[in-house]
Model the fold of this input.
Amino acid sequence: MESRDVSGRKVPDLAEVARLERRVVELEALVETSQVLNSSLRLCAVLDSFLLTAMGRFLLPRGVVALDRGGQLRVESGKGLPLELRGKELGLPCPLDGPVLLDWEADLPSACLETLRRWGFALVLPLASGRRELGLVALGPKPMDEKFDAEEIAFLETLVRMAATAVENALVVEELDATNRQLDRKLQEMNTLFELSVELNSSLDEIQIATSLCYALMGEMLTNVCAVWQWAPGGSPRLLAAFGPVEAEVSPAPPEAVEQLAQVGREPLILGEETDGAPAEFLRRAGFRVFVPLWVQDRACAAVALGPRLDRRDYGPDELHFLMTLGNHAANALENARLFRESLEKQKIEEELKIAREIQLRLLPLSFPELPGMEVYGVHKPSRWVAGDYFDVVQVSPGELALVMADVSGKGIPASLLMANVQAGLRTLLSPQTDLAQLAGRINRLIFDNTDFDKFVTLFVGVVSLPDRRMRYVNAGHNPPYLLRADGTVETLETGGLLMGMMPEISYQVGEVQLRPGDLLFLFTDGVVEAQNSREEEFGEERLVGLLSRELTSGAAEICEKVLEAVESFAAGCDQYDDITMLSLKVKHSDES
Done:
């Protein structure tokens, strides 16, 4: 009903005027808020402006905005709340049809709203843009615990709708920023991969490659702890590079710890408390947080371990994928460097073996003496570059000729070194009218004093008196030489004693034979009779004696060549596992020149 004064003029309704004035203030606040909200695309600025406007309009002590982050409501901005609640998750989103008053008497539809009521909020409004549910806004309470009336709630709904558009725009910008950061990171990772690949492939030094890898990973992953191990097939891991506080701890690391962990799989392994096993426990105690096995084809050849990140972030899927990609490049570079190093080492060893072979050949007879009424000839074929077999022909005096055949246990360089000692000792001790028993005893003592318990030597030494063709000899455990008589009978020369190097003192006996025209003396090592064919059959002494009997009328050189040819033909296609050495002495008939 209209009011009029005494003159009849209309008088304004004061309540209506107050309402209109309040509406004007609200509209002005909405316009001002709209300008403020739309002036920024930063999410935190938008939410702060919204909360300050809503709380200032109604003198509210607290307010909060929770957004849906991956299916969980999370406190994104708050006023009047403890700082520890910032970022707290409230649980699953709770769809709201409209504003909800959080009266203590009301039954609330979700645990999320119960939490907000416990925090002291009085009103919750849904935050949505179009059909997209963004989250919720919680406000209150009003001074004196007054309830929000319908007009106030309507104003807040309008304010929230305005804010929702700005929040959605800010979220889009945030997503774009995150995408751009991810693209920038991917670009940086690609640049790192390219630069490091060039650096890795330009070096064939494993330590340099490992060091470059550590620097790249520490810079990319923001950590100051890194270590790289490498191992060859069948070998133990060796630490190539280590940086950070763990350097002293990983240096004495049990090699099996790293290799065992690398065999688990190709994927990077997070070394958390739940990671089982002693290898993982060791690396975790040493300060590592992630372990990356490096594979080449079907085997693990190296590994990288990294410590915690300096920014305290966990290693995520993107970081682990980058580590695996970079690890594959590093694995190939490390493997190539290892193969190159091993090739150089092998080449160096072969060169050294070649030199050793040349030196050893100089210790063997380079030529054979021309003897009245006799021929002597020897053949030596090592199973490796250098050998443990030894033969010698020594003109002790104008009337004496020494024939020596020895076989050192083992193969390769150790056997050849022991052979050189035996050769030097014999050359030193041999003299005219040498007591062969004493000579053998002294050589035995020399070998025993200068070798390990598992090293020994078999030796045959015979001294032929050229004028009367009598031969004194000692056989120290060697294959008995064959003496084939002109009439076809075969004798073996076995007198002597035990093989040398087993005991410090061994007594040796001296044997003696008379050589007659047409006789053949054949000395050999076990590599001749133990040569095997593809059926694992040995050449054998029976086959050797038969061949010697058939070649009895041949010369010394021809006999040796025939035996060598027969052994090689018998073992054709099979590896030579032992040295082949032989020495023949042929006594001529009086009518032979």
About this structure: Residues 3-174 form a domain with the Beta-Lactamase fold (CATH 3.30.450.40). The longest strand covers residues 389-397. The mean pLDDT is 83. The longest helix spans residues 150-201.
